[in-house]
Amino acid sequence: MSESLLDRRARLLGPNMSTFYEEPVHLVRGAGVWLWDADGRKYLDCYNNVPHVGHCHPKVVQAICEQAATLNTHTRYLHEGILDYVEKLTAQFAPKFDTALMCCTGSEANDVALRMAQALTKKTGVIATDHTYHGNTTAVHQLSRSNPPPGGYWDNVAFVPAPDSYRPLGGDAGLPHALAFAAEVERQIAVLEERGHGFSALMLCAFFANEGFPDLPKGWLDPTVAVVHKAGGVIIADEVQPGFGRLGTDFWGYEKLGFLPDIITIGKPMANGHPVAAVIAPRETMYEFRNNFRYFNTFGGNPVSCAAAMATLNVVLEERLQANAADVGAYAKNGLKELASRHEAIGDVRGSGLFFGIELVTDRQQKTPATAYTKKIANGMRQRGVLLNFLGRHYNVLKMRPPMVFSRAHVDQVIETLDIVLAETPLI
Fold first, then answer.
1. CB proximity list for 110: less than 8 A, separation 6 or greater
2. Element (DSSP H or E) covering residue 226
3. pTM, to two decimals
4. pLDDT confidence of 171, banded at 50, 70, 90?
5. What is the four-CA torsion angle of 198, 199, 200, 204, rounded to 10 degrees?
6. What distance in Å separates the CA atoms of residue 243 and residue 250, rounded to the nearest whole number?
7. Domains with residue ranges and CATH for the chain
């Protein structure tokens, strides 16, 4: 069945449609932290942040069904749903963030955020790290070093080395690392000014998730914030992965890192799988954008999407899932550290809340990335019924980012399975 599905997929959807794992999983059902394939096999989902409050959460399903059976239309008609949701959503941010633009995907949100920055600064130069991902519109695709656009990069885009707490710029993971990163940003601002584009924005994931979620202390970004604002630019915080309480310590990644961005984007987890995203900004910024760009999104903020998003947010708050992330995430990191004492391949353990993982190396002293080995481990875990994946600058960081209803018992299963797979997989 999997083979014929792959053939049919290639014929109907085109070549190079990526799948996870060497033997792709054919999923047919999900509930909470569990997934089932077409053969009835059960998998522990330790990867998917889109079903933020668990696969098929009954309150979210009910909200979608009830609203879909009542009305669905776009925002050129008046409806309370979008207003009620934005009011409750913006209440979760720092007070200055009091307006939202609703759209459908994180890619759209980031694309809009770049235009907001352009409206504010009247400049077009953008800086990103050299191993980030902010989406797949034409504009945000330009910010991806790991997936170069055909025809090359636009002249108004510049890159800085991604932060790496395991191999830090400046030789130290604290202030020297922070100052080295800020110096790289300052250098690229000068490059953009010299090219004649000026400097508009630094866009970053507030947890540097795709970069391998380095362990950065609160205040680490302060020197960079000072550099950006001195140059007249803005900071766009992409909260698609770290947001909505996932990090445990804070509701948003920018809070954990201890800085205040100028524009915030959110997406994937905010409606538990329904395609919803948003840009959050101060009122003055939103007005500047609306006055400079004629923007309308047919599906953004529709009543069904807002009902799904409201139900998801309510579940996060009512079920105290941020507190659960803090407790279970700390338990998971302790378990991984104990595992590292028995497996030399584990070079570093890091993460926050329910976003944690390990960096695998072939040599701890040299910190040599074990890229091929990491892929084998991810596939080995899949074969034993645990779904996770890998990322990072060297693609050697096992990434665990499960639904927010993950428990300590689920962590135990992950650790026990990982112990077995590490032991049975040769480090060559």
1. 134, 135, 137, 140, 203, 236, 238, 265
2. helix 222-230
3. 0.96
4. confident
5. 150
6. 9
7. 58-318 (3.40.640.10), 321-387 (3.90.1150.10)
